TrEMBL record:
Alphabetical UniProt keywords: Aminopeptidase, Hydrolase, Manganese, Protease
Manganese as UniProt keyword: yes
Keyword Kinase: no
Pfam families hit by this protein: Peptidase_M17, Peptidase_M17_N_1
Annotated protein name in UniProt: Leucyl aminopeptidase family protein
Family membership noted in the UniProt record: Belongs to the peptidase M17 family.
InterPro entries, alphabetized: Leucine_aapep/pepB, Macro_dom-like, Peptidase_M17_C, Peptidase_M17_N_1
Length: 468
């Protein structure tokens, strides 16, 4: 088994020592400049046309010509509300050295600035060296530097996994990444692979993955001996051709990211284990490749799932909900305190909310409220969508219990969520996230490419949700 490089050392994603000599980076809202500037520095900033506009940087020279500090524009509150991690942009623009941020107005602002700085340092370097930011941040006073570094590591793991193309990241390599994570934290991994999936009761995972030359598998990671039980289920479709309902080339181009749910739950698992949260963690990943071959599953095939529900296949490109169904049924058999499902599941979610805002579904109002509050607190957007009961009939084809791809093309994200909920009957609290897992264009703290969504909000909500 070939394992990916796991959480490589990234000094650019770590803070400078707290006692390190550093230069000041003054945050300026509009043209209001710090009173500590000398008249010469103020004149210099004016001569450079510095207005404090969002993202504007002005280096301040000392008398000998060396850099003595910098001004960074954060614009108006209205401008900042249009994005996240505004200060992170400075990390890539500043010259090499240690920097400290001056002018932060609250602990929450300090934490967002510090985390954004770390996330801005991420670069995917498996195939090309590339350049990385040279400016390092002295973590603001009162911010838990070690905690933020663990969160940034988890996000980097998620991004690395999503960014890796399918020729180097198939089901076996995804298992290798899970095993490397387990080894780091003293967790245990059990895998059911290939034909054993049928023998052990995972017919839908087997059906989706059997046409690939790389055997499908269910990866089962466990960690922790006490506390409430949290089960994370992540869609691990390492590449999705669409199967016999073949995708057009334009739709297949980003399908290396179809394991974004698995990548996100592994990144979240690293955060949970690295921070030592007092809970029992289980991670289930159905890892497959949806390929085309003589033994590929077909439209209008009907399979009996692990749950005993029969499923009619009306589109082989709606494979993610099939592999998740068996994994969710397996998770539900233990009735954990919370089951959380992550999947790059539907284009309908992107049409509704765009690439930045993943919808989530739950029947638990308290859980929904905790997630919504946490998403705002940690700048990790989420939006609740309904398990709309009147649409249940749309997923019932008549010839079988369930239809994996209802006709009509309406409410696609909701009907997919309703489909998944049918496989969770013993667990009181269940939440499903329909994520995108991709940053279409670079933004502060988020280079173009794979990106984690929802993990930081979940992490922030867990103490309330599970009463930790």
């Amino acid at each position: 088994m070939t394992a990916l490089p796991f959480l490589p050392d990234r000094p650019e994603m770590r803070f400078a020592p707290t006692n390190a000599a550093s230069l000041p980076l003054w945050l300026c809202e509009g043209d209001v400049r710090p009173e500590v500037l000398t008249p010469a520095q103020s004149a210099w900033a004016a001569a450079q046309g510095f207005t404090g506009a969002l993202g504007q940087l002005c280096l301040l020279p000392a008398e000998g010509g060396a850099v003595e500090g910098a001004l960074f524009g954060i614009g108006s509150a209205a401008k900042r509300a249009r994005g996240r991690f505004a200060v992170a942009e400075a990390a890539s623009a500043l010259p090499e050295g240690n920097w400290r941020i001056e002018g932060l107005s609250s602990d929450a602002e300090a934490e967002e600035a510090a985390l954004g700085w770390l996330l801005e340092g991420y670069r995917y370097r498996r195939y090309a060296a590339g350049s990385t930011p040279k400016a390092r941040l002295v973590c603001p006073e009162g911010v838990d530097a070690a905690r933020l570094e663990i969160i940034a590591e988890g996000e980097a793991l998620t991004r690395d996994l999503i960014n890796t193309p399918a020729n180097d990241l198939g089901p076996v390599e995804l298992e290798g990444a899970a095993r490397a994570l387990a080894a780091r934290h003293g967790a245990h991994v059990h895998t059911v692979e290939g034909e054993a999936l049928l023998a052990q009761g995972f017919p839908l995972i087997h059906a989706v993955g059997r046409a690939s030359t790389r055997a499908p598998r269910l990866i089962d990671l466990r960690w922790g001996e006490s506390g409430p039980e949290l089960t994370l289920v992540g869609k691990g479709v390492c590449f999705d051709t669409g199967g016999l309902d073949l995708k057009p080339a334009a739709s297949m181009g980003l399908m290396k990211k179809d394991m974004g749910g698995a990548a996100t739950v592994l990144g979240l698992a690293h955060m949970i284990m690295g921070l030592g949260l007092p809970l029992r963690l289980r991670v289930l990943i159905p890892a497959v490749e949806n390929a085309v071959a003589g033994d590929a599953f077909r439209p209008q095939d009907i399979y009996t799932s692990r749950k005993g529900l029969t499923v009619e296949i009306n589109n082989t490109d709606a494979e993610g909900r099939l592999v998740l169904a068996d994994a969710l049924a397996h998770a539900d058999e233990e009735a954990p305190d919370l089951i959380l499902c992550m999947a790059t599941l539907t284009g309908a979610a992107r049409v509704a909310l765009g690439p930045d805002v993943p919808p989530f579904y739950t029947d638990d109002d308290n859980l929904a409220g905790a997630l919504a509050r946490a998403s705002v607190q940690v700048a990790d957007p989420l939006w609740r969508m309904p398990f709309w009961a009147p649409y249940e009939a749309m997923i019932e084809p008549g010839i079988a219990d369930l239809d994996n791809a209802p006709s009509g093309g309406m409410a696609g994200s909701i009907t997919a969520a309703l489909f998944l909920r049918r496989f969770v009957t013993e667990t009181e609290r269940f939440v499903h996230f329909d994520i995108y897992g991709w940053q279409p264009a670079a933004k502060p703290g988020r280079p173009k490419g794979g990106v984690g969504q929802g993990a930081r909000a979940i992490l922030a909500a867990l103490p309330e949700v599970l009463e930790l």
